[in-house]
Fold this sequence. Notes:
Layout: H1 9-65, H2 68-78, E1 84-91, E2 96-99, H3 114-121, E3 126-130, E4 135-144, E5 147-157, H4 159-209, H5 224-290, H6 294-322, E6 329-332, H7 334-351, E7 354-360, E8 367-370, H8 371-388, E9 393-404, E10 408-417, H9 424-427, H10 445-455, E11 459-465, E12 469-477
Parallel strand pairs: 7-9
Antiparallel strand pairs: 1-2, 1-5, 3-4, 4-5, 6-8, 9-10, 10-12, 11-12
The structure holds adenosine-5'-triphosphate and magnesium ion.
Amino acid sequence: MVPRIKLGLKLRVFLSVALFYLAALGTLTYLTIRSQKNLLLEQMGDRARTAINLMELSVAPPLYKWDIRTLRIVVVEAKSLRGVEYAYVFNAEGRIVADFHEMEEELFSVFTDEFGQRAIKSDETLVDVDHKKGILDVSKPVILGHEKLGGIRLGFDLKPMFDEMKQVTVKALLISVGIFLLGLLVIFGIASRMTRPIEQLTVAAKRIEQGDLQYRVGLKRSDEIGSLASAFDQMAERIMHREGELKQSQDLIRRADRLSSLGMLTAGLAHEIRNPLVAIRTFTQLLPERYQDPEFRNSFQAVALKEVDRICGLVNDLLSFARPSIPNVSAEDVNEIVEGIVRILETEAKEKEIQIYRRFGAHLPKIFIDKEQIKQVSMNIILNALQSIEGRGVVEVSTRLFTKNHSDQYIQIEIRDSGAGIPGGDLENIFNPFFTTKKDGGGLGLSISHQIVQEHGGYIVVESQVGKGATFFLNLPVRPPNQQEVKDHP
Ligand SMILES: Nc1ncnc2c1ncn2[C@@H]1O[C@H](COP(=O)(O)OP(=O)(O)OP(=O)(O)O)[C@@H](O)[C@H]1O
Ligand SMILES: [Mg+2]
């Protein structure tokens, strides 16, 4: 295939107008030169006719009287006429009786050339141009009464006229080239003026496409391009407005997602709190009876303290999860965050006979993250893992330092479950909002988690085999604080 050269709009407009202009100017120049040439030839023809008419008056009487001497004088006089190259007088039989240079050998001979032949036979004035020799031939019969006495033939040198014509042509061409160059400048100016607003629109479209929604064309014109520009600006305004609305709805959805997770937790948590309370109550009831028993007192103290601490811990976790998420990036210990979430979900896990294993990496660096948001992500993914298991099962939560491409460091949270797994076809959809395979699922957990992790400069990887379970890897970048890019979300 022949590669197509991409021409800009300006160049295309310029080239087409310039081409048309060149054709028009070229034709005009050609016609001017041609008409000038014809005019010069016509003038020359008129001069030749006048000259031959005058000569006829002088030639007729001596030719009638056969006065060769006078004829020769007349012919020699013709020499003084401007531009005359040769002059002949011939008799009725066509024989030359007087000529310009008086060459004897030509006298009484007959013209052999084609024009000469015609001149002898013709009863009218003939004019002909011999371009090759550069001669204008004119002939006229000399008639007295009804008798044709002979004729005159004059040859005019056309070279001076051709020279003049050449000069006229050169002048016309020079003027045309000048006008053409000047015209090119004007065309270039017009092409630039015509295409500038379109270029402005293109720039604006690119800027908006790159996400600069504030950019406006700002073209004030009363023509179609002006309406296009103002429609474009209005469109950009509307997109900006929609973007704002979309962000607001996303925030609302996030909040709703937190609340729905919270609802699921509360039921399990109530159960978890009631168990230690029952234990403490039982001990408290027995306390008056067994107060003197030091062993009972010690174990009461140990059990009560442990259970109360446990309840406190759970309530704190719950509270911090329920609090609305205010963007707050600070150096956080990932293990601590994941531990908090595992603790609140353990109740539900135990009920379902699911074992949660912690394999937390030691000495992990603190990373700059929004604690509440990362809690929400861990919560969503661990909950999904628990929900994927029918009957007994295992969920393994690990953390580690992970280096990608020998340079980028991430803290990796791995959540592996022994659940149903994700079919290959679903894998590409699980991060889409509202994609769910659960009866009462909202399908928002993973899409929100994905967004949060992405805003932290991280990414999520999923591996799964149907029937064997699924593994989610959350990778959060370890970067110096000045390179953090977490975006704020009210
Ligand atoms: N660990 C997992 N094992 C198997 N399937 C999973 C797992 N995690 C996610 N999925 C699949 O991905 C889908 C989407 O998950 P997501 O968390 O986004 O929504 P949901 O859990 O269905 O509903 P919600 O979290 O809003 O209550 C789930 O419906 C499920 O089919
Ligand atoms: Mg979910």
